[in-house]
Amino acid sequence: MPSRSRMISGTWHICAQAGDEWLITYALSPNLGAVTLFAVGHAVELYLKAVNLKCDGKTRLSHEIKDLWDDCKRRDAAFMPSYEIRQSALDAPLFSGRNEFEFLNAADCESFFSNMGLYLVAKLLPDLKYAGLEMQRHSGPFARGSVYPDPYWIKFFSGLRAYLQYPAPEYRDPIAQHLRSGDVPARAREYLRGLYAAK
């Protein structure tokens, strides 16, 4: 098995296009709980890899959202300034069904409640596809109510797309292609169109 710190090289827009396909999957799915969250979390992972590849042509071979996020921030301090993943908040026993205020200071609370979806996938992405089995990084029950499809992700991915200046005319835009083709059901189509309206 490759080391999680191993770096891979590639073309950044291919990662972004793959991220688009997972975002389409998220929008198309019924709310399947962990499976649905895995789809949007994997889209986050691929977009962060795209950012790292665009910055210097390499990225980690890793599913660790926090590591990929920190790489983006190290490479460009101006990356996604309205968003953060605080390690102190991430280390707290979040999503345990208990009151998060017990574990988080004021700054952590503000970050967590502003970016709950991002914390959820950053903390649990490698485990989400194994929902119902023993988790590697979470013990005991966990619960979290959420809106689906969550408008948070439209704003988040709009910010990532703007940062990447993607899609550009020379790159394929899988989401726009599916919206034009009419093969996306109405609810998913309305949701994904937000990517082109949000600024």
**Poorly predicted runs of 5 or more residues:** none
Structural class: mainly alpha
What is the helix/strand order?
EHHEHHHHHHH
Radius of gyration: 17 Å
Ends distance = 41 Å
Largest sheet: 2 strands, antiparallel
Count up the helices. Answer: 9
Topology, number of strands:
2
Provide the domain count: 1
Mean pLDDT: 87
Strand order, sheet with most strands: 1-2
Helix fraction, binned, reads 55-70%
Strand content bin: under 5%
Anisotropy-based shape: globular
What does this 3D model show about the protein?
It is a single chain. By secondary structure, the chain is mainly alpha-helical. The chain has one domain (7-84, 117-197). 56% of the residues lie in helices and 3% in strands. The chain has a two-stranded antiparallel sheet with strand order 1-2. Helix 1 (12-28) runs antiparallel to helix 2 (34-56), helix 2 (34-56) runs parallel beside helix 3 (65-75) and helix 7 crosses helix 9 (186-197). The N and C termini lie far apart (41 Å).
List keywords for this structure.
199 residues, mainly alpha, 3% strand
Brief write-up:
With 199 residues, the chain is mainly alpha-helical. Helix content is 56%, strand content 3%.
Topology record:
Layout: E1 7-9, H1 12-28, H2 34-56, E2 58-60, H3 65-75, H4 87-91, H5 106-114, H6 116-128, H7 151-164, H8 174-181, H9 186-197
Antiparallel strand pairs: 1-2
